[in-house]
Amino acid sequence: MMDILSTNPFFGLFITFFFFLLGTLFHRRWPGNPLFNPLIFSITCIIILLLVTGIPYEQYNEGGRFINLWITPATVALAIKLEKNFVYLKTYYTAILSGIALGVLFHTAILVIVSILFQFNQELVATLFPKSITTAIALGVSDSLGGIVSLTVAIVVFTGVLGTVVGPPIFALLKINDPVAQGVALGSGSHAMGTAKAIELGDVQAAMSGLSIVLTGIVVVILAPLVMGFVGVLF
After folding, report:
1. Do 84 and 65 share a structural domain?
2. Based on the domain organization, do 208 and 188 belong to the same domain?
3. Spatial separation of the C-alpha atoms in residues 19 and 186, rounded to whole Å
4. How many distinct structural domains can be found in the chain?
5. Nearest 5°: CA angle at 177, between 172 and 178?
6. What's residue 19's pLDDT?
7. Measured CA distances, 19 to 1, 106, 107 (Å)
8. pLDDT at 21
9. Domain span at residue 151?
10. Which of 98, 152, 163, 195 could join 142 in a cystine, given CB atoms 3.0 to 4.6 angstroms apart?
């Protein structure tokens, strides 16, 4: 019976929605528990289900891949929030642009240093470099640089989940209450998943986070060949 179900393209789609909605219910009941973050919960449950039943990932992905089609439109739709809060961009554009640029440069410097310390090869550097941008852009960057695309996806997801979990506590700890700063931090550090958290915090945070996704992706795309050229010289 399970074999018949797993070969149906809608199987992967169904269990993805089922576990995500279940995680959403648990998250509303226990909002402070990071284990019930809908994304973490659904990913964990799907992995366990596939391991226990022995269903190959390829069979699951026959339906799960349809979700990938929605990534780009969902990212573009974030511009709706930006249009409604465009005044913040006009007022704080210098801080927003410089913050995003410095964030990407710092991320790049850390990656290069870690790559030297642990002797990463160029393939691994290319895989890790787009970890903080949305999946729709990260896949193209990783593939064009010669990275391991499937591993890039996993790292992008992990980065996004981590940002959504630790972001708000860091804001509270450091007393970062400005909605523009919160939105830029979540969008540039943890892409679409961070933006989902930003939407929970407010419209301004959501708008700034959506803007940061786009700008961070552009900066990473521009820097990508330069970084790989530099890494090629080092190695």
Report:
1. no
2. yes
3. 24
4. 2
5. 150
6. 92
7. 20, 36, 33
8. 92
9. 74-234
10. 152
Tokens 């465009």 label which residue?
86
Cα distances from 162 to residues 65, 150, 168, in angstroms, run 23, 19, 11
Q: What does the alpha-carbon distance between residue 224 and residue 140 come to, in Å, rounded to a whole number?
A: 11
Residue where a domain terminates, one of 46, 69, 92: 69
Nearest to 224 by CA among 137, 99, 159, 162: 137
Please state the length of the chain.
235
Looking from the CA of 50 toward its CB, the CA atoms found within 13 Å total 19
- Tell whether 78 and 26 lie within a shared domain: no
Per-position DSSP letters for the chain, written without gaps between them:
-HHHHHTSHHHHHHHHHHHHHHHHHHHHHSTT-GGG-HHHHHHHHHHHHHHHHT--HHHHHHHHHHHHTTHHHHHHHTHHHHHHTHHHHHHHHHHHHHHHHHHHHHHHHHHHHHHHHHT--HHHHHHHGGGGS-HHHHHHHHHHHT--HHHHHHHHHHHHHHHHHHHHHHHHHTT---HHHHHHHHHHHHHHHHHHHHHHH-HHHHHHHHHHHHHHHHHHHHHHHHHHHHHHHH-
Query: Do 137 and 22 lie in a common domain?
Result: no
Residues 37-88: tens digit of each pLDDT: 787 888 889 989 989 888 887 788 777 667 767 766 766 666 666 666 677 7
Same domain for 52 and 65, yes or no, is yes
Q: Which residue has the higher pLDDT, 78 or 22?
A: 22
